[in-house]
Amino acid sequence: MNFIELLLFTSIIIIITPSYSSSSTLQSNATCALNMAEETAYFYHTVNEWLDVTSNDRVEKLLRLMELRRDDEALIEARYAVRDSQSTDPMLMALMGVCLTIRQSTDLAEQAFDRASILLDFEMSYLSKIFGVDPRLYRVLKTIQASVHYMLGRVRWNLSDYEKSIQALEKASEIDSTVPELFEWLARSNDRIGEVDEFLSHWET
């Protein structure tokens, strides 16, 4: 995707609203939100590290609401922040994904994490070509990039889309293999599609 194509792509404003599914789906999604508590805490930590070396008032406001578990306010703030940024801010989009996961809107969370991953991939590709980038900022962004791909893989696993889950988790491992529980979920995904050798390889990592 060249720069012009990206501009056209990011000019489309995505307004994500929560959806409500059947009781069985809500129960499954509630389990998803519970199981991703550690991933969410890790992501909050990495975003706080990013805020230590840069400034973004909307991200900071949203993150504080989420850390305080003011979930309804956080979702409203996320919707407005994403809209105002024309869906081009990967941090806001990723935090939106977390909000939607907590609110049990797993399908929409997958869309948000997917878009955040695309935006972060483009940003990191651009930064890698610039001389003099703050090394700490680059390191933190790389960790966030991997974490977003990981959460995308986790959400896809909860949607039973195991092959796409593997794609996202493998991408995360290529970026930063130190993301907690990454290889465990790669093993789980491989197990679900019957890839025994891959399962054993990742499970032992």
Question: What would your notes on this structure say?
Answer:
The chain has eleven helices and no strands. The chain is mostly helical. The chain starts with a helix and ends with a helix.
Assembly state: single chain
Residues in helix, %: over 70%
Strand content: under 5%
Characterize the overall form: globular
Given the helix and strand composition, which structural class is it? mainly alpha
Largest sheet: none
Radius of gyration based on Cα positions:
17 Å
State the helix count.
11
| Uncertain residue segments | 2-34
Overall average residue pLDDT: 82
The counted number of beta strands is 0
Compute the separation of the termini in Å: 34 Å
Order of helices and strands: HHHHHHHHHHH
Task: Describe the structure concisely for a colleague.
Helices cover 76% and strands 0% of the residues.
Features:
mainly alpha; disordered N terminus; 76% helix; globular; 205 residues
Q: What is the fold's blueprint, element by element?
A:
Blueprint: H1 3-10, H2 23-35, H3 37-53, H4 57-67, H5 71-84, H6 90-102, H7 106-127, H8 135-158, H9 162-175, H10 182-192, H11 196-203
